[in-house]
Design a protein that fits this description.
single chain; alpha+beta; 7-stranded antiparallel sheet; two-stranded antiparallel sheet; 6 helices; globular
Length: 200
Amino acid sequence: MKKLFYRYRKCMFIGFILLLGIIFLPTLRPKQIWEYPPAVMNVSDNYFDYQSGLECSAYSSAYILRFFGEEADGKSLYENFPAKIPQGALPEGIVTFFRLQGYSITFKKNASIEELKQDISLGVPVISFIRVNMEEPYTHYVPIIGYDEDYFYFAESLPYMVNCQDEDLPYNRKTTIEEYKNLCRNVDGMYQCPYFVISK
């Protein structure tokens, strides 16, 4: 009887381990990274719109809408933007906004730089969620429209962050990939390399 009891306990333990494996194994698999071009620039008939307050969620969203050919400006969008807080808008606000407009959107967290480049290479700018700088906790939403081996290229809505002012360029800010790795680390104290992938 004792042997039967121990055998039953052993079977239950093995069954429990197998059940855990079935539940958690899919999330532990490495993310699939396919080959992507060494450089990409997602260009459209668009323009840079500059915020005057904490409205980067709406200004980034407006840029993406214009990329898809819709008329939009950040100031107007921000008036009724979802999930606003005194410091701006929460990430779920961007997700809710695009879903209400009929778009598909995914908020990716804990991504790698390779995965980010892969998503940019799909042909639509992504909205990156980064820190404004490494000295302060403030966060910022900004579209990344392209990349190459050394830089990410942005459609920046914060006037003081603009560092490329040539009117012929499709971007107005560029940041080295190494610097970007710091800006996208520990965003809001919880996210590593977070960004939004939007499609129609």
